[in-house]
């Protein structure tokens, strides 16, 4: 009975059309923007409430002659200073106060300085005047005095010159919000594309590996061997190759059917792949032929590895049609010499494989009279 063709990996995946991906991304971005905006407003509301309390404390009376400045929030700054001006006449008071305000960097407009000074010198306790730039304003207060002078305090509140990154670094809540948005977008993208990436990985793996045995296909195995051999030629070292053939494989197909032969190939591929190191390269190079490349192993140790694999294979019992079957394998071992090409290495391993067959099979040959290597 012919084997059914396995389902293509993409047929088992629920694929998303580009239009659905775009719609899902847009909807997620819209919801994320709304949630982020609401959280940002809550943070800013809390900051404004804190700023108002700080501002009220700042404008209160302090001991005479004190000068202070501070920062309400990363976006708002406050500057505060005091002086004493003569009260002989309103004009002289205004002139002196304007001169003092002219030297204060926080009061920049002449109209604002005149309005502030005139109000206080005429008897007002508090005068508030906008400066006309970015919503800044100055509060001028008369703190008391006597008939000859008056103590005055100027407090200016304006927006700070701050960049976005500085604002984030100085505001832990905003920084946490930015990190949360980034993580949410990253996780959404990951889950949206995870199934497609898995399908791609499966297709790529199937393109490189033999479906039945799980070992590399011949073309990919040879490509990996070429890369390893080139690296050994450049950097030095050694590498050994095992050429493996299952004994009397045709008789298994003839006696038990191709299904039994497939099971033997499948078990052999699993055995070889599980018994070697990470970095060793296992390939199925023919119907019942396998090859293993062993980097950094000299030939005599590679021969010990080959004999261990031979014994494991020979001890594995298969049961077909109620009968036990033991399958053996023959192996030829060769190691890379400094002048070798890939073809020469593989040819030497194949020659020793044929010698193993000629010597009765179920054995390992790693030396011969005509082809010496390390």
UniProtKB/TrEMBL annotation:
SUPFAM superfamilies: Nucleotide cyclase
Catalyzed reaction equations: 2 GTP = 3',3'-c-di-GMP + 2 diphosphate
Keyword NAD recorded: no
Annotated ranges, domain GGDEF: 237-369
Keyword vocabulary terms for this entry: Membrane, Transmembrane, Transmembrane helix
Keyword Transmembrane helix part of the UniProt annotation: yes
GO molecular function term, any single one: diguanylate cyclase activity
Pfam families: GGDEF
Protein name: diguanylate cyclase
Taxonomic source organism: Zavarzinia aquatilis
